[in-house]
Amino acid sequence: MTTSAKPSPRANVLGIEIDRLDMRGTIARCEEIIERRQPSQHLAVSATNVVALHEDPKLRDVARSCAIVSADGLGVVWASRLLGDPLPERVNAMDLMERLFVVAEEKGYRVFILGATDEVLETAIARLRELHPRLVIAGYRNGYYDEAANDEVIEDIRRASPDILFAAMPSPKKEYWLAQHRE
Question: Which of 2, 13, 85, 102 is at a distance of 20 to 30 A from 159, taking alpha carbons?
Answer without folding.
Answer: 102
